[in-house]
Design a protein that fits this description.
By secondary structure, the protein is mostly beta strands. 0% of the residues lie in helices and 55% in strands. The protein folds into two domains: 386 residues, TolB, C-terminal domain (Neuraminidase, 6 Propeller); 82 residues, Immunoglobulins (Immunoglobulin-like, Sandwich). The chain is built from no helices and 37 strands.
């Protein structure tokens, strides 16, 4: 299945593609914008099935331009966690991952710095100073154009891990190294430099009488000294914590809160956003949607407008396990839209569709990366999955967020429906220029999940009506005018809170 659409020069690109340039297997973990499109980073196998890092260049329309592999026979190269591969702002790229030296059972952290073509500018390896294992997970650029790296290091032979953060200069030389964590097994998965020039690290800790996951956030000062530590976990197996900065100098945390168990290994969970100030105070803690089985988060990034985009995966049905999701919300964590996506459908192929990273594109849409495959042949080989949608999360022009597409629906503003003010907080004026407006008409409002929020009967020949959204949560809504079961007019409505 390949979807490739472009409507006019100024319209966004859309595609839904798989990539496996080595003809082995691949799983996309990171993606970011590039002057001619996108640069993606994947974990892939070589011809001997040793692991390697693949840097893949893709055009705006989804066409594969080039790819470069980093690896060596007898060694496994790991590209770090989701979103470890980043743009430095000058269209060079960097990542922090690992090398497993299989013959000596040693793991070292690996920092790679690439030019705009994916060719290496320099690389550095970092060794454990305690045992034989330092696993590189993620990184970020600092204000002085150096880098901050995070991973876990075996501290002793009991296999306990601690967060390891390493500060390096612009050439990769180590400046300092710190170890932070609990008495349990701690794994860091994201790191940012905060506005006070300290650092926030998000990850997970294994704790409890039974093995459970708790999201863990650690805040340090500019020298890596601990300021505070926060465990956001509950009774059940929650997901990891991923951190990003907010426009008002706070920390946004993405996790998934578990309220029960689906199986002994996987919970029922809800997407969970937590805003924390730099002193470690929780400003708010919000949960979204219904509790769903195997609902896992992958990444969150902050955007220039103060909004956020996040992605993950969730079990959809017995035969579609999972589908990927993307969630767009404003600075107050009001939902703008949430959509689920797939490459492989359900029965009989048992589709598995994972999204691991998401980034904003040049057309203000979004591009996401992950992997897709099926449990049964012939599509049971893992392949990198890249999905390009527009700013409303649509996979095709003028899709309808939150409800199924119907005959006669051709555009968001189909039928001349006008809403004012938009965005709105209270009373909304709705006007339309539909021809032959006679008969049994109704105005319907749907939220982003497709749930009906309001229905208003429209008197015959009426051309204007008011409704009150003062009690609606903030987010993206769809307003439609129906003639019986046929939708003849529509518009999107944004509610701000």
């Amino acid at each position: 299945m390949v979807i490739l659409t472009r409507v006019g020069i100024s319209q966004p690109w859309y595609f839904n593609n798989l990539y496996n340039p080595n003809n082995t297997w691949s799983a996309g973990l990171s993606i970011t914008s590039h002057p001619s499109g996108y640069m993606a980073c994947a974990l892939a196998g070589d011809q001997y099935n040793f692991y390697q890092i693949s840097i893949i260049e893709i055009q705006n329309d989804g066409t594969l331009i080039n790819y470069i592999n980093y690896g060596q026979y007898g060694q496994d190269y790991w590209p770090g966690e989701n979103s470890s591969f980043k743009n430095d702002g000058q269209n060079n790229f960097y990542l922090y991952g690992s090398i497993d030296y299989l013959d000596s059972n040693i793991t070292k952290g690996l920092f790679l710095y690439f030019d705009s073509f994916g060719d290496s500018i320099f690389s550095r390896e970092y060794e454990s100073i305690h045992t034989n294992g330092l696993v590189g997970r993620n990184c970020n650029m600092t204000a002085d154009y150096g880098f901050i790296l995070t991973g876990e290091e075996y501290i002793d032979t009991s296999n306990n891990y601690d967060f390891c953060i390493i500060r390096i200069d612009p050439l990769g030389n180590e400046i300092w190294r710190k170890y932070l964590g609990t008495a349990s097994w701690d794994i860091p998965l994201s790191i940012i430099q905060t506005p006070d020039l300290g650092y926030a690290i998000g990850g997970l800790t294994y704790s409890g009488a039974q093995i459970t996951y708790d999201p863990l956030i650690i805040k340090t000062d500019s020298l890596g000294e601990l300021e505070w530590m926060l465990n956001l976990g509950g009774e059940y197996k929650d997901d990891k914590a991923i951190v990003c900065n907010t426009s008002d100098s706070c920390i946004m945390v993405l996790t998934a809160f578990a309220d029960s168990m689906y199986t002994p290994e996987h919970p029922y969970a809800r997407v969970n956003l937590v805003k924390i100030d730099l002193e470690g105070n929780i400003l708010w803690n919000k949960k979204y949607g219904l509790s769903s089985p195997k609902n896992y988060i992958s990444n969150i990034i902050s955007l220039d407008n103060g909004y956020f985009i996040a992605c993950g995966s969730v079990k959809y049905s017995a035969f579609l396990n999972p589908v990927g999701w993307i969630f767009y919300f404003n600075s107050n964590a009001d939902s703008i839209w949430y959509r689920e996506y797939l490459y492989y459908p359900e029965d009989p192929s048992y589709g598995l569709n994972y999204l691991y990273d998401v980034s904003i594109a040049a057309d203000n849409g979004f591009v996401a990366v992950g992997q897709a495959f099926t449990l049964s042949p012939p599509n049971n080989i893992q392949k990198m999955w890249v999905l390009k949608v527009d700013s409303a999360g649509c996979e095709i022009p003028n899709c309808w967020v939150g409800i199924e597409e119907n005959d006669g629906m051709e555009a968001w503003e189909h039928g001349g429906l006008e809403l004012w003010p938009n965005p709105a907080r209270g009373i909304v004026d709705c006007r339309w220029s539909i021809v032959d407006f006679r008969g049994d008409f109704s105005l319907m409002i749907y939220d982003m999940y497709g749930r009906e929020m309001m229905e208003i009967s429209v008197p015959e020949n009426e051309r204007e009506i008011q409704f009150d959204v003062g009690n609606f949560p903030g987010g993206l809504y769809l307003v439609v005018v129906k003639d019986g079961g046929k939708i003849i007019g529509s518009a999107k409505l944004v509610i701000n809170r």
